Amino acid sequence: MIYLDNQATTPLAPEAREAMLPWLAGPDSSGFANPHSPHRPGRLAAAAVEIARAKVAALLPPGGRVVFTSGATEALNLAILGSGRKRLAVSAIEHAAVLETVQFADPGCAILPVDRDGLVDAEAELPDGLGLLAVMQVNNEIGTVQPVERLAERAWASGALFLCDAVQGAGKLAAPEGADLIAVSAHKLYGPKGIGALWVRDGVELAPLVHGGGQEGSLRSGTLSPALCAGFGVAAELALRRMAEDAAHIEALWQAALALLPGFVLNGSADQRWRGNLNLRRDGLDIARLMSDLRDIAFSAGSACASGSGKPSHVLRAIGLSDKEARSSIRLGFGRYTRMTEVVEACTRIAAAADAQ
Predict the structure, then answer these.
(1) pLDDT tens-digit series, residues 32-69
(2) Do 149 and 184 sit in the same domain of this protein?
(3) At what angle do helices 243-259 and 340-355 cross, to 10 degrees?
(4) CATH number of the domain where residue 276 is located
(5) pLDDT: is 218 or 29 the higher one?
(6) Are 153 and 124 in contact (CB under 8 A)?
(7) pLDDT value, residue 127
(8) Strand extents, DSSP E, 131-288
(9) Do residues 38 and 130 share a domain?
């Protein structure tokens, strides 16, 4: 199997797996201890959690705290609903975890459009009385990198909070500066599934969504998993150390893939983009048939969260594509462990299968 769906999830880094193993030990070891217990095994587990927290925090701006959650969806819900803000604005291409939560909190929320390149206008008009603006750093479907620093400045100037979904950018790009709240997910940067984090700028107050024992500074009650925290921490540390190396590898894969897929049109900006995301369309392409013909190549017909819904991608429609064009689009996702030989074989076969239709 050739795996080209790194926007949906990334493989667990071997280093992260090794860091997790001691905390998955059985009864002959104290690694299973509850990190919220006061005895020695509990304190050792708690220390592992705090070491991991510091490593995740190193990916993010100074002047804030990291709150562990079950994933980015919970982190985004905590940010949006916990802020208590009522007048909300969001870009048209946000992940469903943001769009649906914002629309739940404020059914009359403002939707900021994007242009044909899939970019939000940094000078777009913001509504009066704005309480919170949410714009993602890197779009999960087309990979476009948004002008979040400028949007954060404008949110601040209007007295609003700025929330950034940095799930696709964390560990790949520099942290978004100026944000008040940043959501990240471990499994999008070669860490384990089941854990994410919300970075909260110092001075920003949130109300908890989950009540109970008061863990995570009373913002997220529940017992933390030292194993998941340790894996997340090492994955974050590795991503920070390898950021330039990973980017160079991804760039080479991007260039090779584009050269091997003539006749396909790029969806979204080619310049303001994370190159690990290659979203392409070809007129008349039958995606279901293509995926059936290439069952040993894992790629996506759109966002993994929306696959199987039968609905055209809201992101592709937002950039002006027709339903027909959106349904003739594929997404290839390259990552740290993607080999050049795999990209060459996959793209050669995708091109041949498309020509054969």
Answers:
(1) 999 999 999 999 999 999 999 999 999 999 999 999 99
(2) yes
(3) 30
(4) 3.90.1150.10
(5) 218
(6) no
(7) 94
(8) 132-134, 161-165, 181-185, 196-201, 265-266, 277-281
(9) yes
Using DSSP's 3-state secondary structure scheme, residue 216 falls into coil
Same domain, yes or no: 252 and 316: yes
Among positive and negative, which fits the CA dihedral 196, 130, 318, 105?
positive
What is the identity of the amino acid at 356? A
At 160 the pLDDT is 98
Q: Is the dihedral of CA 218, 35, 191, 234 positive or negative?
A: positive
Give residue 308's pLDDT: 56
| Predicted local confidence at residue 27, as pLDDT | 76
pTM to 2 decimal places? 0.96
Bridge partners for 182 per DSSP: 164, 199
249 and 218, same domain (yes or no): no
Are 249 and 230 part of one and the same domain?
no
pLDDT value of position 302: 60
Q: Which two tokens stand for residue 255?
A: 């260039």
Instruction: For the chain, give the number of residues.
Output: 357
Question: Active-site residues: which are they?
Answer: 305
Distance CA 107, CA 139 (A): 23
CATH of residue 175: 3.40.640.10
Q: What is the mean pLDDT of the chain?
A: 95
- The kind and range of the H/E element at 332 are strand 329-333
Backbone φ and ψ for 74, nearest 5 degrees, come out as: -65, -40
Angstrom distance (rounded) from CA 254 to CA 261? 11
- The answer on 332 and 254 residing in a single domain is yes
Tally the domains of the chain: 2
Looking up tokens 């003739």 gives: 328
**Full residue range of the structural domain in which residue 164 is found:** 14-241
- The DSSP H or E segment spanning 243 is helix 243-259
Distance of alpha carbon 86 from alpha carbon 88, whole angstroms: 6
Same domain, 161 and 74: yes
Antiparallel, parallel or unpaired: β 196-201 and 181-185? antiparallel
For residue 82, the surrounding DSSP H or E stretch is: helix 72-83
79, 148, 256 from 134: Cα distances, Å: 10, 9, 34
